[in-house]
Amino acid sequence: MDIVAIKSIAAAFAIAVGGFGPALAIGALAGKAMESIGRNPEAASKIQTSMILATAFAEAIAIYAFVMALIIKFV
Amino acid sequence: MNISLAAEPIFHIGSFPVTNTLMVSWVVLAALVVLSVAVRRSMRVVPAGIHNAAEAVIEFLLNMVDGVTNDREKTKRFFPVIATIFIAVVASNWIELVPGLGSIGFYEMKDGVRELVPFIRSSSADLNFTAAIALVSFFSVQAFGMMSLGVGQYLGKFFVWPWKKPYVIGSFVGILELIGEFSKIISFSFRLFGNIFAGEVLLLVVGSLVPYLVPLPFLGLEIFVGVVQALVFSMLTLVFMTIATAAHGEGEGPHAPAGVH
Q1: N or C: which end of chain B has fewer CB within 10 A?
Q2: Which one of A52, A56, A63 has the shortest CB-CB distance to B190?
Q3: pTM for the full model?
């Protein structure tokens, strides 16, 4: 197998595995946020703000995986 | 289609390469300066037109900052840095929506392959730009912390003597917090860079596959991502500033009063 094929497979694996954890994390986060908004609708905007903030943290990991996949493929 | 992680130099001033992202950031800077001067010159007692729009934006940002700090005095101190980071990052992020991204440029021979060097590339898609803003954010957090707590007490959060209260474990936690502070720089720069660069690659690929109608939802997504990433950057800086200026023993950030059951 030549190096270009291995690079492509490696890039595909990087983003596939790296996107799995953050997807679960963001889903759990949003679920909990919905639950707490349902319990306390008055605090909705505070909860929403914190949820967006925490989602950005979780998504950053997926972004690291994506950048690594791009580096593997193109550099 | 040329996807390059690093920004491509357009021309050289002496031996200093001027990249396309640098030129775009100059354009953004000039646009923001012209906008601010226009707002200043249209100021009347009863706001109208562009003055009105600027007031709406400032009020939105002020309320957002107030929501996190819960303290008007702190808001007044933090607001310039936070609002500047937000507006500069939003403007840089939205440049990638301009038609001509990655496609208008000139051809250059690189390693024997004829590649296109584009003129337009969002300045947030350059790791130098995002790292620079991350460093500004890091240093302003430390500066505000030292200014409000005093250098000794602020550094005492990180360097805990082993014989003080939490005993030996306190020193380790302090060192970990110090490392955490530095890792925030990397996290900030890569988060913004990754999001915007990925958006650019996405728009380029979708545009080259099906140029009609299909890029529309992706353009909408990029508008949203641009705003969210700017918001996240400035809000995280704000939250870290609020934590850094909180006196030791005070709660961290806004607490909801505990319910009585």
Answers
A1: C
A2: A63
A3: 0.84
